[in-house]
Amino acid sequence: MLTTFLELKDHKCTIANDGKEGLSIIKENRHDVVLLDLAMPEFDGYSVIKDLEDNNALKDHKIIVFTASTITQDELDELVTRGVTSYILKPIDIDILHSKLIETANL
């Protein structure tokens, strides 16, 4: 559903079904922005961030994380300190996400 909204706003999307697939896509392809769910199955968004961080690759990507879980502002701020570009909480407002995508892509 999110993909449909983003494509209606003229964004091209590459979809991963889990964190391992997502990490592989991130490493193999260049994207303007990576939209990363922190609560993915098998290999969550935190693990993806840690892997990129461990390989000094986090700085090479503009990443917006999103989550529906109960996450504190301090935890979100820590992710930004580590190199995540931005974050958004679920439920996602598509207009806010669209604005963040445009803003992040233009950094």
Describe what you observe in this structure.
The protein is α/β, with parallel strands linked by helices. It has a single domain (2-105), classed as Rossmann fold. Helices cover 46% and strands 12% of the residues. It is built from five helices and three strands. Helix 4 links the parallel strand 2 (63-67) and strand 3 (86-89). The mean pLDDT is 90. This is Response regulator. It comes from Nitrosopumilus cobalaminigenes. Residues 1-105 form the Response regulatory domain.
Which class in CATH terms? Answer: Alpha Beta
Radius of gyration: 13 Å
CATH architecture: 3-Layer(aba) Sandwich
**Number of extended strands:** 3
Shape: globular
Residue share in β-strands: 5-15%
Helices, strands, pairings?
Elements: H1 2-8, H2 19-28, E1 34-37, H3 45-54, E2 63-67, H4 73-82, E3 86-89, H5 94-105
Parallel strand pairs: 1-2, 2-3
Helix pairs in contact: 2-3
